[in-house]
Amino acid sequence: MNRILFSLFISILITLLLLTEIRANEDTLSNDALYRQRCSGMYYKNDIPGGGSDSIITVNYDKASKTDVAAIVYEWPDNGKVGRSVGPGGTSKVYICDQNAVLANYCPQSQLSGFIVTGNQTASIVTHTFNATKNGQSFTYTINRTGYYCVAALPSPLSDSQFLVTVDWKNPYGELPAMDYPKLPFYGVLTLVYLLIGIIWTVLSIMHRHDLLPVQHYLSGVILFIIMEMAFNWGYWLNYNMYGDSSTFLLCLVAVLNAGRNSISFFMLLIVCMGYGVVKPSLGSTMIKCRILTLAHFVFGVVYAAGTMLIDPETASPLVFLVIFPLALTMTTFYVWTLQSITNTLQTLEIRRQTVKASMYKRLYRLLVFSVSVLAIFFVINMFNYVHREDPDWIPNNWQKTWFLLDGWLNILYLIVFCVILFIWRPTENNKRFAMSEELMQEDDFDTERHSSRLSESPVYEQEKYGSSSGDRGETERLHNDGDDGSVVFDIGDEHDEKSTLRESGEISNASREILSRHSNENETNNYQDVPETN
């Protein structure tokens, strides 16, 4: 068990670490070793729905530069053709073709002052040299196929002189980085899906407004909150795509809404698994603990979101870990507490032989097992990604699906789990009676037969058996059948279900004696014959 909890915690931690990567759509190149090359995915115009204009990469030479600059644009598979390997075993590379390189036969005279390109120069490789004496220099590279492209720049001849070159990546759909583009339609679709869910839930709530449970009011609030969050998420990416720069206000708002949505969702799942509103009318002091954990998770979620915006993960790894660790801890606490709570609730219902409610919680338990299993699968995938994230070929080969590995699958898993929970706890006409009712406990077969034989001598039993009880019995059977197949979870029949359940099961509990006594008194009042008391 401890190993499972540890693996779950590490999975959450690694996922949050990977989510800290943020890219902009404009890059700057300088003579700093860390900023001499930048790469990005690019879409060909025919590969994007509605893509009319060409995808282009624009490289601009800043007039503040003090030296000539050699620049090169190429697709990642041609990376091995850039530069010339020299030295024992080819351990070092020469990139700029100067007079010394020409004399050493590292490059031909035609490449002088530019990048060295070995082998056959493909159409994806374009070189250009900027002259320090000229102003307003730039060149444009047109994308002819979807791929991962890089732009590099170095002083020519190679020196310590400073320069500044900006790179603008322009895709046919707008200004979004290609790695983030799928999020734009993705959040748009999610907004519409949650809006449709909200409309259906609202209609059901209005139809059964007099039978709503407290937990269903909570769920209504969560639905409204999620619709708002998804709409602002979509609005953030739409704004980014239109103006080429992320809105700080929308980014902060989305971060806070996301932290709130996750906290409220975990809280809802936890109190539902504790049996709130269905098994227990109140959680007492436990509710306060749940709220404290929810508040802590929300605060750590906001801190994490702020950290991903303000901290560069490449230069402040220990600080990033300190930001992520509390959030991963509270998330793991929620998972462990939730699984423990639903296990205890199931045990309680089985001991009390509440089969209908137990079947509902068993479905919820299977759902949680499914979600944890999916988390475990993506834990393995994220472990693989984390181990290989320093591999130079990993991002170029996986840039189109990175958004799904880091963001998409979590939202899809959340949608599935949330929809199933809403289906199980959907408003029906008998919610309150189901929540407050108790199925009469079964006795052994011997007591059942004895009780049935004694009841058969009672005129009340004859009247119940051959009178209007057939409809009641049908309602009871519908309750049990619905509990088995999951079609109507909260439907428990009409007000006479206690009598029907008593007749079918043959109970001899105190509750059954009270019900029989009550019916006997009613019949006496109506001038029926006296009914012998059942001992």
UniProtKB/TrEMBL annotation:
Its main location: membrane. Residues 36-171 form the PTM1-like N-terminal domain. Residues 1-24 form the signal peptide. The keyword Signal applies. The chain crosses the membrane at residues 186-206, 218-236, 248-278, 290-307, 319-343, 364-384, 404-425. One of its GO terms (cellular component) is cytosol. The keyword Transcription regulation does not apply. It is found in: Membrane. Keywords: Membrane, Receptor, Signal, Transmembrane, Transmembrane helix. Residues 472-483, 496-506 have a biased composition (Basic and acidic residues). Residues 523-535 have a biased composition (Polar residues). Residues 182-432 form the GOST seven transmembrane domain. Residues 445-535 are annotated as: Disordered. It comes from the Eukaryota. GO terms for biological process: retrograde transport, endosome to Golgi. It is a multi-pass membrane protein. InterPro entries: GOST_TM, GPR107/GPR108-like, PTM1-like_N. PANTHER family: GH17801P (PTHR21229:SF1), LUNG SEVEN TRANSMEMBRANE RECEPTOR (PTHR21229). Belongs to the LU7TM family. This is Lung seven transmembrane receptor-domain-containing protein. It comes from Gigaspora rosea.
